Amino acid sequence: MADKSADYNKVAKDLARREAELGELDTNLRKSRADIDKLTADLTAREARLAELQKALAEKDKAVDALKASVSNALRGFQGTDLQVKMKDGKVYVSLSEQLLFKSGSTKVDPKGQEALKQLATVLQQQPDVNVVVEGHTDNVPFSRPAGAMQDNWDLSVLRATEIARLLTTGGVQPDRVTASGRSQYVPVAANDSPQNKALNRRTEIILTPKLNELLKILDSNSSAGGK
Q1: Per-domain residue ranges for the chain?
Q2: How many whole angstroms separate alpha carbon 99 and alpha carbon 83?
Q3: How confident is the model at residue 222 (pLDDT cuts 50, 70, 90)?
Q4: Labelling 178: which of 38, 202, 225, 228 has CA 20 to 30 A away?
Q5: CB-hemisphere CA count at 13 Å for 56?
């Protein structure tokens, strides 16, 4: 009887140990399932945000394509070596040569250049969600006779950009959408080693960028969600 009692106690202890192990396994399994459910929910939310971001990017690309088409159509009578419309880094660049816009050393836009800017302003009036940056560029030939407010190529590039910005706003573009800046000789598109290349560098670039408010909201939302 004593031996049987000892055996019984041993079996009971072994059974209790196994039940405890099963309980622990069940608890771990429940925790694993909860972790999996959470990871699945997080993945679903991330996929939804990614889809939203991809949609916003596609809409932004579509808007840039449509903007380029509108600008190209409006300026088709001027396009050639003196005026080019192109896309770069998700923006539309309207590059205008000095020959189209200005006489040498002048900051006053010639009549033909004024007409091109008037056509561009008409398009931009219909594109209220587009920001406009006007960049003046020069070659590396220094001023021979600095005078008044214009001492060097910095001044020339800035004053030309300001004059073009003024003409765009006079043409109906809201002033708060327009930024005028001068880059002087420091962002050339060709080496300043020939008259032809120097002429290429004497230009004004009007950079058109659709506002990215919705896209930035999504990015900010993703960033906030990732930090939680």
Answers
A1: 1-227
A2: 10
A3: low
A4: 202
A5: 16
Give residues with Cβ within 8 angstroms of 58, minimum separation 6.
none
* Alpha-carbon span 89 to 127, nearest angstrom: 19
Average confidence (pLDDT) over 6-15: 80
Please give the structure tokens belonging to residue 12: 């009971």
Helix axes 213-226, 2-74, angle to 10 degrees: 160
Q: Quick check: 147 and 198 in contact, CB under 8 A?
A: no
**From CA 15, how far away is CA 200, in angstroms rounded?**
90
Write down the CATH superfamily of domain 1-227: OmpA-like domain (3.30.1330.60)
Chain mean position to CA 206: 15
pLDDT at 213: 58
Identity of residue 35:
D
Separation between Cα atoms, residue 206 and residue 167, nearest integer Å? 12
Tally Cβ neighbours within 10 Å of residue 223: 9
